[in-house]
Structure prediction request, 163 residues.
Amino acid sequence: MKNEVSKFGKHLKEYREELNINQNEAAYMLGIIPNTYSNYERCERPIPMAYLPIIKEVFQIPDDRFLDMLLDRPRRKTRESAEEAAIRLKDMREKYITGVTDSLYDLINDSSELRQLLGFISTMDSKKRRLYLNGLRQILVVYDDLLNAQLGDRTPNDEDSIE
Prediction:
């Protein structure tokens, strides 16, 4: 089954793009570094079998679709209209967003600092918000790298772990 699973990445990329999620977001949702996730999607690195159930759960991939992805089968083309396809895609995205929102509820509820930050960000126009969030993300990545280096927590296997 190794060959089939190693081709899983191309199907995962297609599914991720349907959900309108970027690679960095997908990587962080799975608890892996973005480069590792990118290698999975490009099929340059096989996805460990233990990660498959986690991927299925995190992205809420339907059973039949997941099986087709595992077996490297082409998507079953149904004769749906453009309107039906748009509705299906909208439903998939809403289900994903609801899942993410639900998983972050406790974090937002327990952190007045995070609520304050979200309130500040919500007042920005979309262009300024995107610039602000990209800058903040870059700062957090650098800070995390420095902190891990200081603590000596980085090991070669850290980049591959899903928690």
